[in-house]
């Protein structure tokens, strides 16, 4: 099954986007297959079911064998014994056989065709999909029919060829569920006319449904697929693919972004591959294209075997006396103790093996596809001639799967047919096409594949050694040289995606970013514990190796894509980043990846990148380059990536298509430089990979002569030009500086002038001030009038005012006494100020009389009078001070 990647906050973390919630769905499909005898015996339920082909190669080979057998019988009947024949006679007979084979391949007098294969024709039957319309999901149904299905069909039709069906393709009821349904009774019901009259112009029929059943639609499952019909050569001719419409996320107009659209197509391509033959249930049905025979003898038999999860199960295995030419796909079950040691069953050769079990140096058991083309492609991918084949997942994403249904995530992380679809880089590599070609049913067009950047050309250590070293037992692991650019060891690390197209963060599970729900409640096995904390590690499917596979800062994967111009941000100006079709991600000392325009130069065999208008050359892997940014105002250090990862097509295109060996140490005869090249098994082979199949596009250039620096002035040079050059010679930057200086000048003039301008007074505030001044003058005049109307006039003494506990202003005791004795006015409030709660004070009248008496007996001695008052009236003084 596969997961969709919609937009919005509901999109799940990349490592949980596929196969974590649909294990029950895959179990349901596998259980359903057990009810079909074909999957158990390898024999079609209807022996008469045969599709018509015009001179299928396997029919030609069969007829040639029958002629030889008939000739042998004829000779025996005639009593002819020829133990030795002359070479000339033998050659003549072989020539006659070849001529007869050529005649068999002719069509109505047409010249013989060396290649009967044609692009596969895929027919979609969507009646069940349309029946799921409920008034709210029409846009999603249209999206499946008009976007996902055509995108998937276009890819496979251009990537695979088959011997075309002659006439109509008929569906047999013997391999249908209930003799009516393809795959499951909740999927599509096969129309009666497909059984009786067949489907015209088709080599594969896919029945498309959208059953919302909880058996097949988990919380994040987009689709699940299974094959349900086969021809006489066991090639799948019909299958069912069920979409979970709830997982398709569209906007209000029924559209999705380009990245989300491609994400959905990639999952559909993945699911279709399971129908075509990339499945643990299909390996035992493979045919050998060299002799036109089944790789597995029929009928199948069961045998006990220890699977990759360590559980012993009874599987379909051949008899012990399986011949060398009729080899079961599980015949090679003998165990090797190292990941790089090869051994088949005693009488078998590696060319006849299909799947083989091994035990890695870490102790982990795994299975590998070891068919010839797959093994060659795998060795060319990693530059590891000793490699046994291509490893299948040792952490199976399908329950009860003995070998796994996908390529191993640790070895083939960005591969479209690995267990977890990468959020940024999905590569359908030559490896998957090699597997389908080795099935004996297809001819692959390797130009539709892309060399995976993952581990490309690194060597055997990448395959056989741990991704982090020195980890566990209270210590965090470190990155060995063969892991640089692929793995990481800190959750805070920010780098680039495997294909250097996106900025990404390190995926470390068990820390604050992601919980360990992906792996369940158990911890990694000891050999996979790479951190001080045993509960910390990468995705389980990648053997807990941390990879650059997480987004950050709340952004979606497409918002971190260097190839999308609209992702250019204001902060990117500081580092002179450049987004566009030919931009790549580079590790820098700024703390995260940065996007710069870059080109792979084929003739010079190097990478060039442009920063702030200047081109820099990466001459070797992990070279550091000091670059200036923002016209020299800033700078950073760029680390060059592995050339084999960022420009993989310059190293033996399409892994030599499995038709030769990639010599990574080959020396160019002209320049004397080391230049990897394919050394094909057949020197006359001109197929893709063995000929010069390098295709120049925007990313790849034949040479770098077209790359010229776009010289940018120093940050302050345009400013200097404003003062020394004539305006007619000013650049745009100089005019910008001049405009800025003019604005600054105007602001300075305004600031200076404003200091001389008279202050503007508020009329209302000025009127209020005048009213307050007038009222104060009136009060002073009234006070003088009352003072002059008394019996005697005395010079007023200085009044000493204090503040009471409530904040009110009050006269001091001396002032109070003077005011009373001189006949001045004392308000009642002022008098009340001298009543205290601490000391019983005299009332104003006795106080005034005593004050007058003391004042008279002092004979004009003011100092004595004052001292007398303070001495006798200390309580008032104290109250006044306290108040």
Task: Explain this structure.
Its cofactor is Zn(2+). This protein has 883 residues and is of the alpha+beta class. It has 6 domains: 1-51 and 117-276, Roll (Elastase, domain 1); 55-73 and 97-115, no CATH class; 294-465, Leishmanolysin, domain 2 (Alpha-Beta Complex); 467-552, Ribbon (Leishmanolysin, domain 3); 562-729, Leishmanolysin, domain 4; 801-883, no CATH class. Helices cover 27% and strands 15% of the residues. The protein is built from 20 helices and 29 strands. The strands form 9 sheets. Strands 19, 20, 21, 22, 23, 24 and 27 form a 7-stranded mixed β-sheet that branches. It is elongated.
What is shown here, in short?
The protein has 883 residues and is an alpha+beta fold. It contains 20 helices and 29 strands. It has 6 domains: 211 residues, Roll (Elastase, domain 1), CATH 3.10.170.20; 38 residues, no CATH class; 172 residues, Leishmanolysin, domain 2 (Alpha-Beta Complex), CATH 3.90.132.10; 86 residues, Ribbon (Leishmanolysin, domain 3), CATH 2.10.55; 168 residues, Roll (Leishmanolysin, domain 4); 83 residues, no CATH class.
